[in-house]
Amino acid sequence: MRNRNNIIAIIIFIMFVTTAFAGHHIGAANNEQTLEKLARGMENEGVIIKEWSLYTKKSVDLESMEKVKQMTEQFRDYTWAYEEKGDIYKAIGTKVNKEKKVTEKLQILSTLKNHHSGSYILYELKGKTGQTSWNEMNRYFKKQAFHIFQEELTIFSCITGEIGDMMEGVLLTKSNDLLKQFNALPIEQLNEEKFVSISAKTEEWNESIPTNKGSMNVQIALRSAGLGDFTTVVVGTPIITSEY
Asked: How far does the signal peptide extend, from start to end residue (predicted)?
């Protein structure tokens, strides 16, 4: 039941983001700089990059596991795993690119609820630590994504890193320093003892998501593991797509 709920939650999230971003595709020149700007801003604040990802998705017309499997036949260079639970169909393909030291993941999700189907293809490129050429990773991702979707779609960029242990109350200060790196103004924020999350808007990127308090296109989250441990820092645009 928990896995089923998780999959439904993912699909609902994708549907929300798809609606929110209707008509807000990122231009090629803009994309070339996004991941690098995130990385440089974090490094300027002393964040050690541990992981990064690029992600995009598209709705498709699939209503059965048979159709899902037919779709995977087009991508035989991936290793596929299949899952079917009730009206939920899921296929996950993975491919390790040793040359570029990245992992590629292609997911096909389909669910039928109240006689309405929601099906999506999600493509993700993920790497560890920093890169000597962030723009090269952007170009590679865009090339692979276009091969899969045959069109340019909104790209989600996300970087996770670590910074030395911080005293209580410093998380918010550091998050504000990161906002300055991206010339961003806060829209909404959650400030707890060991966790800070800020949604903000910057003119560095054109795309945005509407919220109750205004549009946003960058998220920053810091979580402290406790005294003596590293603090995890996650930054994403237009939103964070990884767990934080």
From this structure: 1-22
